[in-house]
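Researcher: Here's a chain I'd like modeled. Treat it as a single chain, no partners, no ligands.
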Amino acid sequence: MAKGDCIYVYRNLWQLDGLYRHHGIDCGDGTVIHYRKPSETIERTSLETFSRGNPVYVAEYGDGFGYIPHVVVERAKSRLGEREYNLLFNNCEHFASWCKTGVSDSKQIKDFLPNISKLDTSKLYEPIKQALKGKDSRNAQQLLAEALTDIKSVWDRIQPEYQKAIAEVAAWEQVAKKALKSDREDLARAAIARKLNYQKQASKLEIELSELAEMTENIVRNQQELNYQN
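Model: Modeled as a single isolated chain. Structure tokens:
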């Protein structure tokens, strides 16, 4: 490990070992900047606080672009105190990736949580809430597990649609700029109309993904509460 490295440790989730990685930025002086749990705030803590006694690993980013160590740490410092955690769009891995490469990305979310259209999240969560009101914790745990399975089975279809819409927005913006440079305002207006259409699609999909993220975190919290009660 060295200054500016993106480091991670395995944390337990839902009582399963090594289910997710908790990421942070090594400041090179025995401290780490990371999205700390449970405060969901970007903080600078000791390496011991970050690792919780678990082995620490260095994340590899292949041969792609990466900032020099000093810049990586400065980027991390610039977001100290931030409290905008979002499981799907702004988690600890998104933060560390942004500091290191300039791109906010989370491979483990793409790999783990999958798909979200055709899923009425309100109907999915209602029986869970009803079960949690009762005394049958075993039934509640089963419903929670089934809900997470349903969420996972739905994410993969919407996430690619969202990424495609974002890519189309960028593509049509470039088309509009080129059209203006060629004095083709008619083509530029048409391109801008296409861009706005894809922006609306992306916004709609992002709202759905955010709702799913919130529900997923509620399910996780309820699972943990049931575990504490048993």
